[in-house]
């Protein structure tokens, strides 16, 4: 029996849009996109990894709806989110004479969504785009909310714009062909919503997370829709991250430091950094007396049960890490205010808070403890589940 799509509305006045979450959504994409078009043609931007799996079904759906299309297929990888990559994409869009009232489709994961979104934010001073996210991370986080960016030598996502998409189509069938490691990395962002603001959802994930990762379509639709609804609520309240939107960065301060230390390489995927970062944020919260001392273990137990990393020791090469260097990486965090690091900490599962009063000494003490434990890991049950699963 076909499953019904879930529709989440992001109510932002003229910048508002719907997020459709479902199975078999790509086949219906033409009909969903057609009403938005000023003329029946679009340009699809995707990458060489996604194109073989997802481009032809989308093109077929556009054909069925009588929508002309052209495709730009970029090399895969974070390297595209650069000045050079942005220039190449803008060239390709302008060569195809994309007009301001046209719609550009971003078909892919976070890199494609961020790059296409940023290019569209400046193309002819602002052109509309549609997100068709193909990774779990992009479906629950990066395709929703209008954050677009490229990376520069100072750090990740430091040049960008808020530019909302006109439509998001999250087809969970795309997740079937994701490499398991990438799926689990995206699952960290799913867990994030439970931990930051929805204790019932975290309990639901404790019950259903493994089945969801194993491929249950109904559970995937439910989880993606719940995450999108949660993110939509936050974005509607604080589109430009002047306040509570920062909660979506739970786990990201520690995570970004680890990503920077591993050179943003395949040694640590973004979601893996977020998983470890969330475990560390709960440990720091417990050390500061903000939350119950037993909570970090509950968070870590769920991450480990889902074969996800949950400690610095899970990062390849972590024995060489140094606490001061990790702390220095945090200095480029976008949440830094007047030189003070801002952390998203937790008072409980489902109750995250923004704190700008955490001393560097407390952070260093936690990092040093973690690094000392790697040097002498002792008998930690389940400690190596993540590495084995990779
Ligand atoms: N990824 C965090 C946000 O969209 O605010």
The beta-strand count equals 11
- The percentage helix is 40-55%
Using the CA coordinates, give the radius of gyration: 20 Å
The major beta sheet can be summarized as:
7 strands, mixed
Strand line-up in the sheet with most strands: 1-2-9-6-5-3-4
Total domain modules:
2
Give the overall pLDDT as a whole number: 94
Broad shape: globular
Q: What is the architecture of the largest domain at the second tier of CATH?
A: Up-down Bundle
The amount of beta strand, in percent, is 15-25%
Q: Could you state the CATH homologous superfamily of the largest domain? A: Dehydroquinate synthase-like - alpha domain
Put simply, the count of helices is: 14
Order of helices and strands: EEHEHEHEHEHEEEHHHHHHHEEHH
Ligand inventory: glycine
Kindly provide the name of the CATH class of the largest domain: Mainly Alpha
Q: Provide the structure class.
A: alpha/beta
CATH fold-level label of the largest domain: Dehydroquinate synthase-like, alpha domain
Features of this protein?
binds glycine, two-stranded antiparallel sheet, 11 strands, Rossmann fold, alpha/beta
Task: Summarize the structure in short.
This protein has 14 helices and 11 strands.
């Amino acid at each position: 029996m076909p499953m019904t799509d879930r529709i989440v509305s992001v109510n932002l006045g003229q910048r508002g849009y719907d997020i459709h979450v479902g199975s078999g959504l790509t086949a219906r994409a033409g009909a969903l996109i057609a009403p938005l078009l000023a003329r029946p043609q679009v340009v699809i931007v995707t990458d060489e990894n996604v194109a073989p799996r997802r481009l032809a079904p989308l093109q077929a759906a556009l054909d069925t709806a009588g929508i002309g299309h052209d495709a730009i297929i970029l090399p895969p990888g974070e390297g595209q989110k650069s000045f050079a990559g942005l220039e190449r994409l803008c060239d390709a869009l302008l060569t195809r004479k994309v007009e301001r009232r046209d719609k550009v489709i971003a078909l892919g994961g976070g890199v494609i969504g961020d790059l296409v979104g940023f290019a569209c934010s400046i193309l002819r001073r602002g052109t509309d785009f549609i997100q068709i996210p193909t990774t779990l991370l992009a479906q629950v986080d990066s395709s929703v909310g209008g954050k677009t960016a490229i990376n520069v030598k100072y750090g990740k996502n430091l040049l960008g714009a808020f530019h909302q998409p006109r439509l998001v189509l999250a087809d969970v069938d795309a997740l079937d062909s994701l490499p398991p490691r990438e799926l689990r990395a995206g699952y960290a962002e799913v867990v994030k919503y439970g931990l930051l603001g929805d204790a019932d959802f975290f309990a639901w994930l404790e019950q259903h997370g493994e089945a969801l990762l194993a491929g249950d379509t109904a559970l995937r639709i439910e989880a993606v829709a719940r995450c999108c609804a949660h993110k939509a609520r936050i974005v509607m309240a604080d589109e430009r991250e002047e306040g509570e939107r920062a909660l979506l960065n739970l786990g990201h301060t520690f995570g970004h430091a680890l990503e920077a230390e591993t050179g943003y390489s395949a040694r640590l995927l973004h979601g893996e950094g977020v998983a470890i970062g969330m475990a560390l944020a709960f440990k720091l919260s417990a050390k500061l007396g903000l939350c119950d001392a037993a909570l970090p273990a509950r968070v870590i137990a769920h991450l480990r049960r889902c074969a996800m990393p949950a400690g610095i020791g899970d990062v390849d090469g972590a024995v060489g890490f140094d606490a001061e260097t990790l702390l220095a990486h945090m200095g480029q965090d976008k949440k830094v205010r007047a030189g003070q690091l801002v952390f998203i900490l937790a008072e409980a599962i489902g109750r995250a808070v923004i704190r700008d009063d955490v001393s560097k000494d407390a952070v260093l003490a936690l990092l040093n403890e973690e690094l000392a434990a790697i040097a002498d890991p002792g008998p930690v049950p389940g400690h190596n589940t993540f590495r084995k699963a990779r």
